[in-house]
Amino acid sequence: MTFELGHHGDQEVGGGLLDLAVNVRHEPMPAWLSRPIADSLTELRAYPDDLEATRAVAARHGRDPAEVLLTAGAAQGFVLLAQALRGVRRPVVVHPQFTEPEAALSNAGHQVHRVVLREEDGFRLDAGAVPEEADLVVLGNPTNPTSVLHPASEIAELARPGRVLVVDEAFADITFRAGIAGEPESLADRRDVEGLVVLRSLTKTWGLAGLRIGYLLGPAELLSRLRTAQPLWAVSTPALAAATACASPTAIAAEREIAARVAAERDHLLRRLAHVPNLTIAGSPAASFVSVRLPGAAKIRLELRERGYAVRRGDTFPGLGPDWLRIAVRDTAITDSFVATLTDVIEERA
């Protein structure tokens, strides 16, 4: 099967459709975030200066500023890795997962090896499936599109001398586990895992997809190599203002509240989906989206569009296929309306 690695959820929306295809929160921006972004617009005559934002992100994760690289969205980080690490011989991408890492590697001339996790195993990570000779390994946690959260301890087992281990944590700040403070299974603050690079995004939780802001955390020497591959002034002044604000204690506290709320809304979605005929849920979802397997999903997706709902097709993800859909977590009212419509579509096709 040929997968469309360049296809993303934003291509599913438009035309007045209710968006359950894109994993970006749809809530108003809080004043503590919107105000510094707006204020930064008076400073656009000057070139961007990332020093304050870099220090703020470093402080949030207990790191040295040299271990932080701000990027124009986390996706730019994958391009920098692919360009700066041209010497790697055996890059491995663990699928199903966000397709941009493989696309960036392929576009830079790398021959990518895939490790595909199995549905019958709940799409859980099997560290033993990664070839020992892999000198670059990329995986997501929690993983887009399956929403599976892998144990940090098992991911850390993938570290090897001479290997770069890249963990995409674009949705880590939306994960929640009762009784655990912070982001369960995140490796963002870990400095003891050899060759570890963590990518983070600020676009999902805070609805900043159009602003393009993310960052990488990792060894200073390695990030210095990536920085040489990055264009000058790659991150805009408004995006830097957002990064500083989102690293504040106020932002972190708000993230915790949002993560708990999303967990409750996700549980509601899962309860409703459990009663949909012929539907199978992927793994144990832990993020702000779930993937489901449905016979005839491609036609069901088109019928849902006719009835006003956009969901993400799953056949562009290696390891899934034409019977898969990804559904974003929304509030309970939207979920109830969507699942009722989905059930109607399936029953009418029976």
UniProtKB/TrEMBL annotation:
It is an enzyme of class 2 (transferase). Residues 43-333 form the Aminotransferase class I/classII large domain. The keyword Nucleus does not apply. This is Aminotransferase. Its EC number is 2.6.1.-. Belongs to the class-I pyridoxal-phosphate-dependent aminotransferase family. One of its GO terms (molecular function) is transaminase activity. Pfam families: Aminotran_1_2. SUPFAM superfamilies: PLP-dependent transferases. Its cofactor is pyridoxal 5'-phosphate. It comes from Paractinoplanes ferrugineus. Keywords: Aminotransferase, Pyridoxal phosphate, Transferase.
